[in-house]
Amino acid sequence: MDFQHSTIAEGYVKRMTQFVRERILPVEEAILSEKKEYGADWKNWPLDERLEALKQQAKAEGLWNLFLPEISGLSHTDYAVLAEITGLSLLAPEIFNCNAPDTGNMELLWKYGSEAQKQQWLEPLLEGRIRSAFCMTEPEVASSDPTNLRATIVQDGDHVVLNGRKWWSTGLGHPNCKLLIFMGLSNPTAHKYLQHSMVLVDVATPGVHIERMLPVFGAYDAPYGHGQVMFDQVRVPVANVIGGLGRGFEIAQGRLGPGRVHHCMRLVGAAERALELLIQRGKSRNAFGKPLLQLNGNRDLVAQARMDIEMIRLLVLKTAWLLDTVGIMGALSEVSQIKVACPTVAARIIDQAIQMHGGEGLSDNTPLAAMYAYARILRLADGPDEVHRGVVASRELKKYE
Amino acid sequence: MDFQHSTIAEGYVKRMTQFVRERILPVEEAILSEKKEYGADWKNWPLDERLEALKQQAKAEGLWNLFLPEISGLSHTDYAVLAEITGLSLLAPEIFNCNAPDTGNMELLWKYGSEAQKQQWLEPLLEGRIRSAFCMTEPEVASSDPTNLRATIVQDGDHVVLNGRKWWSTGLGHPNCKLLIFMGLSNPTAHKYLQHSMVLVDVATPGVHIERMLPVFGAYDAPYGHGQVMFDQVRVPVANVIGGLGRGFEIAQGRLGPGRVHHCMRLVGAAERALELLIQRGKSRNAFGKPLLQLNGNRDLVAQARMDIEMIRLLVLKTAWLLDTVGIMGALSEVSQIKVACPTVAARIIDQAIQMHGGEGLSDNTPLAAMYAYARILRLADGPDEVHRGVVASRELKKYE
Amino acid sequence: MDFQHSTIAEGYVKRMTQFVRERILPVEEAILSEKKEYGADWKNWPLDERLEALKQQAKAEGLWNLFLPEISGLSHTDYAVLAEITGLSLLAPEIFNCNAPDTGNMELLWKYGSEAQKQQWLEPLLEGRIRSAFCMTEPEVASSDPTNLRATIVQDGDHVVLNGRKWWSTGLGHPNCKLLIFMGLSNPTAHKYLQHSMVLVDVATPGVHIERMLPVFGAYDAPYGHGQVMFDQVRVPVANVIGGLGRGFEIAQGRLGPGRVHHCMRLVGAAERALELLIQRGKSRNAFGKPLLQLNGNRDLVAQARMDIEMIRLLVLKTAWLLDTVGIMGALSEVSQIKVACPTVAARIIDQAIQMHGGEGLSDNTPLAAMYAYARILRLADGPDEVHRGVVASRELKKYE
Amino acid sequence: MDFQHSTIAEGYVKRMTQFVRERILPVEEAILSEKKEYGADWKNWPLDERLEALKQQAKAEGLWNLFLPEISGLSHTDYAVLAEITGLSLLAPEIFNCNAPDTGNMELLWKYGSEAQKQQWLEPLLEGRIRSAFCMTEPEVASSDPTNLRATIVQDGDHVVLNGRKWWSTGLGHPNCKLLIFMGLSNPTAHKYLQHSMVLVDVATPGVHIERMLPVFGAYDAPYGHGQVMFDQVRVPVANVIGGLGRGFEIAQGRLGPGRVHHCMRLVGAAERALELLIQRGKSRNAFGKPLLQLNGNRDLVAQARMDIEMIRLLVLKTAWLLDTVGIMGALSEVSQIKVACPTVAARIIDQAIQMHGGEGLSDNTPLAAMYAYARILRLADGPDEVHRGVVASRELKKYE
């Protein structure tokens, strides 16, 4: 178990940390202070020029696409520590072209895409010129059990016709979102893990109706958004199917391992940031004649947060190391373990930081409320806690058979 | 300890339950399904005609102002069970003219207001023609320790001049909000509990600048809103001071006991509603071949929720009974106990109901996300958990002196 | 919901509180300080003369058999508050002739016993001359599901023959234990709730082999003990069957409702005592220049303990009130609720009191370690938490059918 | 962060695992089944010949004294994984001559002992011929703040005279316990961390009165015992002082880092064993027609236990790695982190395993009750949770100065 990242990664660690702390956090503070509102009217969500400028800087400085091992040459263990740094601010991942779901979509195109698919979609994604969404979850069924998915893909000559409603398609509200990856039932009579396919869909294709962005506790996670979208007799060429009909589950599985490591390390970063804010507030605000940190069990909160952050970080690093050394099939339990442990711990620490800020912590004065929503949604997205606990239990019990 | 409500109250219980379930919940469902947005632009928040109509019905049917013992003839124990019913929907309290902070403000005017003050402000409030806000919390200081409050009230002849910034003034965004009750430092050299005063301020007074509504996790709790407001050299007649200069703390104290019982019983109602939604979802949605309720420890969640709801309800009823029998000074520990216990339990059960709904639970498809914000904010509003635990501990330790 | 105990009960409250605090607690302290050991060698467990003397006093003063409504004239609500007082010391229940399982056994004989049975067994039990045990749980099967019980009762003319091993028969080690109530399978082909019977067995009957007392975390709960006992071809007259063959479940059910209320109220008393000890220690012991209570979040522990004790007490009182007003069939959920909530809360508070005492808390210098064992065992005895949560969930879900 | 143990350690892992599982666990089972009692009468605690034989085997096979880097050549990281294996059974540590407090005492003698001290005491300890105790904690003061210690060491010519009562001296009841290390106040006017000294005392020295063994929840942890011992004018040569007068704290500090890693890794092993027993019981015992593991949220318990064990193990390994790479002064926070996290997690999992076993789990039929006591006592021994949380918080807050 060697979790030490490489010296190359160490260079990135220093540069990204500096980039986030010196360039992104000040912009974050400026943006929060402007109290601009991004409500349900997603079609009018503007791009922020400051962020666009930071993206160009990151790209120019080579802090770009580091998530993709084939480009960056970094191992999962290496990238994990970088993902943590991007978790310090919700603005950071996009700036480094490392935000979900684009990362997973790019990885998927890299691995399973045809040359034509790569040329048309992967290149502009890697350049950050366009963005993408992943359309899997459906409102009508418990998508935690993906064999429930009902949206359909029917071949009609050299086209496929897509039908069905999808939601929680993150990134769909972004002004630059051009590509949708649609997952649906194409081979209903095959084995249950061979029934689904993934299809590339240009967002401008007739029949694609974006119905709305979904709020999380009332906030829209702009400019990304979590979209609800109807596919109504959407026709695209068969050549848009990824890897061939019936391979949807296989491709989804490969996509989720590294993606969960990324999410979880970002949560570690978010938890670190929350602890930082908690301590700064606790030191600077006084009540009853003392700094808040000296009251009640607040120092114990700090201690418990430190312990728990250390533990979830180590667990994610171990998982990344397993992906590097034995691959996803040897890390199924660990991937599910981190998917349960990290959002729970991060949400609790963020919530405690909110409490330390008083009402301000719930408002948009600090990044905490949005961070809480991020941590909370990850108890559901990419599989709810319940499903992941089930995976961990079932891997454990297998040892006794 | 006789928590049984009176037979008069029992009549109200039946009628209010029916009113909420048959008339309010269907409107709530309709409103949620319309996905209308109430963003930061609070000046354009419309009144909903359906709710206005329901208010008229409630008024006509005598389900109106029941919170005020002097009008309704109900004890605190009696009203507590009604407050629980109003907690089933976030729309209900206003419809019965029983929502915070108007309830507290009316009570305060009833008890401490001069005849002129009553005529000008209490009557229209009781009729539901206007609404009000309570301006106490300040951004710059830890208002959990109210001796920190810095906003000033300076007498200038037969006027007082008010200065200072306030926030978390709930209800300030409502189109009908006309009255502000301002708390500030008027007698800075007096004993620390005799330094503050409360002043009635018409929202249209020059110098009152409403700066914005504060979001909670990004949502604005429209059409009420939590306002941030600047008082800049606001001049009002000395006659607008409530009960005389220096009585601010005394009045605030009397206001908070019943108000906390109301909040807490509404949370009991919210927890009941969340459990109901959790069970309905858990019975009707299937995954892995079974209703969700049959999976994992979900039945245990139901059992634990039932126990915890029973326990917090009983604790609030005991507190109400103490208010009825020995008054607020004999119920200080209990009032603080419920203020800690109820939001914690309600927030947990609502969160579990969200989890059972999957992503939908976080969206605006159900009342759960807004209920969560209500429960969460009550861990801070009217005194944070930390302060109330301190009260309970200090009352307990007094027994050993 | 009127939980107020009667004025008669109020008289007992005063006298019993005084009795416990002035006479029992000093003896408890003396006994603890003597460090006498009661190990596995149960046959040599002596009676303590001081306790015998206190029993005589309690009997003489009418503080005797108050658990039995038919004798004491007290309601369940009345007795509940007395049971709490007996929970302040593990020595108290026997002194008032109110300890399990004798209470349940006496109640059972009172309700279902024949005249001859009453004369032979109930009278000496009521006089405190003999003691008894209840032999239900079996080592070989999950007795949480009582339909699993395998010990057999076979009729042979005017006798029944009993076979099977029982354990966790509390009280079996007491020098005065004379009566065993044996539950076994008598009618294996009947409906599953009509297959079992209860039989009265003199402990001296041939074939009754007491194998040992079972330790709980290494302690023997002397002089009561939790016995393991083999019934090997034990012959007793058919007249020893209680209420007729096949009525075992029916009788067991009636026995458990009040018994659980007693256990739970004793736990409330134990939690109160633990909180008292926690506070006294926290005030008197110093570290780092301050009393322990002023360190860390220790005051928050006190506050949380106070809240939780209030809540479990109210829940038990409500359950007692339901037993009084609607009977056991209307209180099934509540009886199970308290059976889960009380041991959990009491065990946590006792554990915190132990922590406040440092290593001493784990030793036999204070009553805390033994109290912890009592609370812990009640998460299993009379049905494990899991079964009771199941009852609560299933009663809750019935509302939705 | 390279936690991988060496290939030499890997060889020990295999051999020790096999030794524990094939030779120690069967003896453990046999001993448990014999129900021999080791009560308060510690002077008659016998040695078990089977264990003595296993010790000889372990010694002969080189599985001996592996805790001491200077002998074994193992790093802390290497030994940590071995300590986990010794945690699988409470009998194992002594068999490998690796149990507390002898390990710490030997280490201390190795580092600070004079040649004469080493020859007299270290050699027989390393050979397992004698055993030792560490006499630090005092009944009269909160020893969590070691500056409170009051026992005295007064120089009198070429002797020192020791006075004071100590308790929780683990191992003092062992028939072979010969050496006591006494910590006391020798230089009361020096700086507060230079006031104490450690002195070697033969248990047979006049004035050493072993008063009793202290039970933990009623059990004596035989044949080790936790002793209470009076030092009454005990005279020993000055040459028995370790490292010179006034160095007590310095020596204690160095002693505790590795010792805590050992305790914590043993707890990881204990947690693994408890999970194993939980699963085996849950699979083999049926209720309501199903194996217990299929009921309620029992599979979730398994999943949570697996996650938590992984996390505490990684945290201990990181701490060991820090000890190896930067030494104790760079690992102060981590040493305190594991000291809080490991006993808490282990105690919870052991408690859940007890619950899965029903009443049997609390008895002496399984190793669980004794393991629970071990985990529970470690929330107090070597510094209570509260003190360690304080260390973690204070190291964290230092970053902000």
Plain-language structure description:
Four copies of one chain form a homotetramer. With 401 residues, chain A is an alpha+beta fold. The first copy, chain A, is 49% helix and 15% strand. In chain A, strands 2-3-7-6 form a four-stranded antiparallel beta sheet, with no helix packed on it. In chain A, strands 1-4-5 form a three-stranded mixed beta sheet, with helices on one face. In chain A, strand 2 and strand 3 form a beta hairpin. The two termini of chain A are 27 Å apart. The model of chain A has no long low-confidence stretch (mean pLDDT 95). At the A-B interface, strand 8, helix 11 and helix 12 of A face strand 8, helix 11, helix 12 and helix 13 of B.
CATH class of the largest domain in chain A: Mainly Alpha
Helix percentage range of chain A: 40-55%
| First-residue to last-residue Cα separation of chain A | 27 Å
Largest interface: A-B, 52 and 52 residues
- Quickly give the CATH architecture of the largest domain in chain A: Up-down Bundle
Q: What shape does the CA trace of chain A take? A: globular
Within CATH, the superfamily of the largest domain in chain A carries the name Butyryl-CoA Dehydrogenase, subunit A, domain 3
